[in-house]
Task: inverse folding
């Protein structure tokens, strides 16, 4: 799971915990620890309402990773998804799931 909020909106930051709780209720258990919290719009520093340490603390309290991003800088978004893939690989997720091969590449069906 990727739980995102805007660093320019305190309300969106508060909703991350609500989204987490909704996933837990829907799935009947905690979301996968292979999840990250993403603080977006990090380039808008003059409008910032949520600070880096707050985002990290929230992610840590949920057992998730944290990344700051900005769609203005594509590399930061790529970093968020790379973090998610690293967590998937680290925890061995998908090793027992079926795969599908096409054109020499393997896709994991999750």
Result:
């Amino acid at each position: 799971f990727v739980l995102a909020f805007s660093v320019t909106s305190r309300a969106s930051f508060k909703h991350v915990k609500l989204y987490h709780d909704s996933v837990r209720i829907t799935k009947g258990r905690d979301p996968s620890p292979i999840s990250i919290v993403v603080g977006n719009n990090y380039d808008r520093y003059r409008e910032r309402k949520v600070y880096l340490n707050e985002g990290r603390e929230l992610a840590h309290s949920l057992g998730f990773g944290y990344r700051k991003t900005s769609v203005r800088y594509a590399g930061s978004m790529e970093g968020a998804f790379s973090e998610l893939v690293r967590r998937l690989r680290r925890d061995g997720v998908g090793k027992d799931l079926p795969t599908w091969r096409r054109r020499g590449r393997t896709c994991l069906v999750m």
About this structure: Strands lie at 2-6, 36-40, 65-68, 99-102, 105-108. The chain has a mean pLDDT of 80. The two ends are 13 Å apart (CA to CA).
